[in-house]
Write a structure and sequence with these properties.
By secondary structure, this protein is mainly alpha-helical. The protein contains 7 helices and no strands. Helices cover 79% and strands 0% of the residues. The chain is flat and about 50 Å long.
Length: 175
């Protein structure tokens, strides 16, 4: 086992952990940039594929971290990357949650809550854009993604049949 890749995984994912406002999906663009452009651990197509696998697999939504770690340094890489992504954020959450609960209703608390919500949503939309770029969607693919996003956001329709139909259209290379 080489320590260089392990240390790279620890340093990158521990910093990313603290920045993951809104969950690990909010930092997918930085994860993609670092893994693909900076470290060359993966190609953009590989990153998109492992993102899809991580989202389709039961378990934590940040399973992509373990898959990147596995690609970089095998089983130890997967374990180290996952711990580096979870422990700093969990530690910070435990510390901040005590302050958060005791300050409920104060003006600064409400202002921070209202300010962080659009940041988290923006980061998650950026993640979707990054994954769409890696999927090499056509113009019609982007239109379908936008329509589905609006449909799921504005209605209570069950997304599974629509996802299945769009998945089949993509598999048939019609999108």
């Amino acid at each position: 086992m080489k320590l260089g890749p392990i240390l790279s995984l620890i340093s990158f994912f521990s910093v990313l952990s603290i920045l993951s406002v809104g969950g690990s999906n909010s930092v997918v663009p930085e994860m993609a940039r670092h893994a693909v452009e900076v470290e060359h651990w993966l190609t953009l197509a590989q990153f998109t594929d492992i993102f899809a696998i991580s989202q389709a697999t039961p378990g934590p939504s940040n399973l992509i971290v373990a898959l990147i770690g596995f690609k970089v340094a095998g089983l130890w890489g997967a374990l180290v990357a996952q711990l580096a992504m979870m422990l700093p954020a969990a530690s910070l959450m435990l510390l901040v949650s005590r302050i958060w609960v005791t300050s409920s209703g104060r003006p600064w608390h409400l202002a921070l809550e209202h300010g962080l919500a659009p940041i988290a949503v923006g980061l998650i939309f950026a993640s979707g854009w990054t994954i769409a770029e890696g999927a090499s969607l056509s113009t019609i693919g982007y239109v379908i993604a936008a329509v589905c996003t609006l449909l799921f956001w504005k209605s209570h329709i069950n997304p599974i049949p629509i996802i299945a139909v769009v998945g089949v259209l993509g598999w048939m290379r019609l999108i």
